[in-house]
Write a structure and sequence with these properties.
about 210 residues; 2,3-Dihydroxybiphenyl 1,2-Dioxygenase, domain 1; five-stranded mixed beta sheet; globular; Glyoxalase/Bleomycin resistance protein/Dihydroxybiphenyl dioxygenase; dioxygenase activity; oxidoreductase
């Protein structure tokens, strides 16, 4: 299907929250056939632990609190295990980060000339640049995996799918397809679902 405008934003990481980090990690690594390639010690300052799982060059992050009064622990108490956020990569996040903190970018360098289009380009969430040789090898090991689509549900009472798609396209520079849907530069389709009373909003499905 042809696109109607160029794409400039990549879906790079999906974050999930879980009460039991070890159990959830074991379930996902077993189902996906992957391994943990990084655990970020810096998130402990916010009372959290995490693991990173490779989906080719993109990531699933599982986050779990070890302290009670954190944003994640409050979300778990309210909504249970599930989707938390998506992290996008663009060519110039600095210009937009004051209003869109979910965007990130990596400068073009001789070693990294195509950050958005190279499946295995460096990613800050996997630690310092010295880690890149090791984790890029793991990315390539699981290169047969990739995200296909994700679904996000609008807030309860919001059923304006067309308006929400237009807002995503304008705010995040995500491509518009001729079928009216949205698509990231790495081919991941974003499906928006109407809000429903009593049904959790936000990230609901990942394929």
């Amino acid at each position: 299907m042809q696109r109607t405008q160029p794409l400039s934003t990549r879906l790079r990481q999906i974050a999930l929250i879980a009460e039991n980090l070890d159990k959830t990690t074991d379930q996902l690594t077993t189902v996906l056939g992957v391994e943990v390639i990084y655990s970020d010690p810096t998130v402990e300052q916010w009372g959290l632990k995490n693991v990173m799982l490779p989906i080719g060059g993109d990531m699933i992050e599982i986050v779990s609190p070890f302290e009670p009064n954190t944003t994640v622990s409050r979300l778990l108490a309210k909504r249970g295990d599930g989707g938390y956020m998506i992290i996008m990569q663009t060519s110039d996040a600095v210009a937009q980060r004051s209003v869109i903190p979910e965007l990130d970018s990596h400068a073009v360098t001789p070693a990294n000339p195509f950050p958005l289009h190279d499946r295995f380009s460096p990613w800050h969430a996997l630690g310092p640049s010295s880690n890149y040789p090791a984790y890029s090898e793991k990315m390539r090991k699981y290169s047969y995996l990739r995200f296909l689509s994700l679904a996000c549900r609008l807030a309860p009472g919001d059923e304006d799918i067309a308006g929400a798609e237009a807002q995503w396209q304008e705010s995040f520079s995500i491509g518009k397809r001729r079928d009216g849907g949205c698509e990231f530069v790495n081919g991941v389709k974003l499906n928006l679902l109407p809000g429903r009373e009593g049904v959790k909003d936000g990230l609901t499905e990942v394929f």
